Amino acid sequence: MASSDGLVTLNVGGKLFRTTRATLAKHPDSMLAAMFRGDMLASALRDEQGHPFLDRDPTHFPFILAYLRDSRLPPLPQGLLELQQLRVEAEIFAMAELAEAAGAAAAATVARRQAAQAFEERRAAALRATEAAVAAAQLEYDAIKAALAPLRVAQLAEQAILYQQLSREVEQEGPAASKLRNALLARLCALGADVPAAEAQLRATHPQLQAEARQYSYMCR
């Protein structure tokens, strides 16, 4: 109810707010200024205690009062839903500046969310493209590996034959035998064989070929 000293208690959606007539009249074009001007207040709906009753959500009414008291925009809520609700309330109370500010803040929030969503979508697309490229590379590698498998089997078979020939040739001496051993080891090297292991075996079983065997280690370098 209104008192003689200008204090006013409003019941907004079941919650009481105490202010002054001067505050409510600061914006002449607002609904509250019109309500407390002339005979409109006398016909206003009242609660059991006689307070003027406004059938509105009280959640955002503090922003309405803050705007009236300070004659400037108050700090606005951060959430999109709260901003949208405040815009509606400000429009109903005929406070165009507050409604416009809440609407602009809501639009900016939507734009930020859309930008963040677009970024996440681009990041997810890039990740999917990378995963697809890795999968394609793996398939290509597997295909090459499968294609080379028969060749590797043939190489291993040739290595076995060369080892057999080498084991026979180490019994021979002379330039011709040495040249043949070098040729056999060179071929084993080309096939990816473990030439150092062959050297070790030669040194262990044929001490007379120690000096010559030491030369083989340079053939695959």
TrEMBL record:
SUPFAM superfamilies: POZ domain. Pathway: Protein modification; protein ubiquitination. Pfam families: BTB_2 (PF02214). One of its GO terms (biological process) is protein homooligomerization. SMART domains: BTB. Residues 6-110 form the BTB domain. This is BTB POZ domain-containing KCTD21. It comes from Chlorella sorokiniana.
